[in-house]
Amino acid sequence: MAGPRKRPRKLPYQKLDVGRKEIRLLVVKKAEFRSDDIYCELRRAFLEDRPVPSYYTVSYVWGDITTRTAIYLDGKRVEIGASAEQALRRFRTREGDVLLWIDAVCINQRDIVERSQQVAIMGDIYSSAGHNLIWLGDDSDGSFARAQVPLQAVLKDARLATSEYSDLQERLYNKQSGSFLFSPDPSTPLDIDNLEDIHGIYDKAWFTRLWTFQEVALPQSSTVYCGEVGTPLQRLLLAAAWLRYREAALPYRINKMRGLRRAAVMWDHFDRDNGQYPVARTLRPGMLGLFSALEGASAHDSKDFVFGLLGFRRRYPGIEHALVGISSDYTRSLGVILCDAMRAALMDEAKTYRGSRFFSHLSHRSGDLQPGNIPSWAPRWHIPWDQRLDAYPYRMLTAIGACGDRGLEILESHALSDITLSLGGLVVGRVRGTAPVWTENKLRSPSAILRRLDCFRLSMNEEDEQRRMSSLARTLVAGNIYPDVPLLPTAATDTFRALLDTLTRGKIPLYAPHAGHLAPGDPIRLAADYFWGMYHSCRNRRLFTMTDRRIGLGPQVMEPGDVVAVVYGSLRPIVLRPLLDEGHYQVCGEAHVDDIMDGQWLADQEAKGRKDEVFTLH
């Protein structure tokens, strides 16, 4: 009679040489049958040495970390996560042993110091590998296999529309700003049978995992496997980017498809010729843009929303100076790590851009400004964006911005600690009153919109009806209408009236891309273009009035008594909440104040000899 089965042992680890960038690699022994037990051996390697052993990296989803499965490692039976075991089983071969790097086994996850050290060189690990193997899991329902047919049809549509991909980059991205574009001809249908089957690809959990972002951008090449089907990663990401471009022809909105949206963002950084930042143009994203790309991802540790970007120094060499102040130290608090990341991002913006939107991704909710929380000036990148609760970042400004030609001024000598930030600027004025928050429901009700606008117009301290109408029209869209074009004062009133006429008839305007085939002056298109700008700008924000008769659109957490300030280097004014100590504030968020957005107000103040102020943010 067999005795009781031996209890699995802990993984056998020895200390690694940090100075030589030492890592562990896993030799997965060959096996005749898929069901055979998995036998492996650990091998040590140094990334500083040349040549580096030829190995594969494995990109996968941890899944439920409490579900464990046994393998045999260096002759001992040990337990690892079920998802990691499944990936090893899939990539094991009959022909010979395979040399892999997989985080669940090659990093001592119980040693927080080692985990910090290995995360710091993750970029080296993935960029030094010969190939990246991506495991999406079993295709038990056949959805991934079925999706290959519509996937091929999407790629054919892209290939034909771009002359065999010769002008793909120009189609997908704006040459000046680098922002992604939508098709200028939304009326052309995307006639693909069973297009909904493509969700069988992007609904996989891998596409929303945080670490996959750099695991896509850094390796030399990657292949995706799901069940028995394998396909180059490039095909999946290009299809996602093309569907984003052709969104108006789809029966659904991309921003409601989390995995598909993430895959399109992955393409932006994946392809070094046709992505958003092609090597030939020596473009690179700012750190704020990289952090925002991780929003909505999933991770077991919130600190990874910062540490998950450290490997990008290998993808974008020019960003390395900005990452110097960030270390992958899991012993530090989340608040301090977020502050370090934001401070580094601000310094990067100051060196790269004249004016920035460095508070554009602050979307405070009720309770966020309570004492003891994460400092108000540090974005909550680790909290998934929720369209029911959060505001869209304001659209890109086409004007010079409220800061004029004044660049960001970080006044380190005034900072009190690692979690405070001191910036230069000037106070514009104090908030007198605030309107209710524009919720999704209110913005979908013609009668609710009209009632709210009537109430706010009565609260405006402006006797000239034409000026009142024009100012309110520009404020509601934060200066921009579809497709990211400025609403000029000469056109503001007519465009706003086109919206009001549509609402008076009890209708919500068309989705703007669907009205693109109409003539530019058509009232239906005017209303659609305006409402698109208003919806994106107003949702989860509120209108406000100031004591100096100005009006604005600001964050939902603002309240009477807050102050509006122009912070040097910020294209948009910032709403600040005064604290007890003079000059100390919390950040409520960005605002739009109509008549100070072109830098003239700041120039006038400087001409009057007004002295700079210091805002110490908590």
Secondary structural class: alpha+beta
Can you count the beta strands? 19
Low-confidence stretches: none
Widest sheet: strand ordering: 5-4-2-1-6-3-7-8-9
User: Helicity, in percent?
Assistant: 25-40%
What would the average pLDDT be, to the nearest integer?
A: 87
Described by the principal axes of the CA atoms, the overall outline is globular
Q: What is the rounded distance between the termini? A: 68 Å
Which value, in Å, is the CA radius of gyration? 27 Å
Estimate the strand proportion. Answer: 15-25%
Sketch the major β-sheet: 9 strands, mixed
User: What is the overall number of helices?
Assistant: 21
Fold and architecture overview:
The structure is a single chain. By secondary structure, the chain is an alpha+beta fold. Helix content is 31%, strand content 17%. It contains 21 helices and 19 strands. It has helices spanning 82-91, 103-106, 112-120, 122-128, 143-146, 148-161, 168-172, 199-202, 212-217, 233-245, 258-270, 287-293, 304-307, 320-323, 334-352, 440-443, 446-459, 465-476, 489-504, 523-538, 600-607; strands at 22-28, 39-46, 56-59, 68-73, 76-81, 98-101, 131-135, 222-226, 229-232, 421-434, 480-481, 485-486, 541-546, 551-555, 563-567, 574-578, 584-590, 592-593, 613-617. The strands form three sheets. The protein has a nine-stranded mixed sheet. It has a five-stranded mixed β-barrel with strand order 10-15-16-17-19. Strands 11-12 form a two-stranded antiparallel sheet. Strand 4 and strand 5 (76-81) form a beta hairpin. The longest helix has 19 residues, at 334-352. The relative contact order is 0.09. The model has no long low-confidence stretch (mean pLDDT 87).
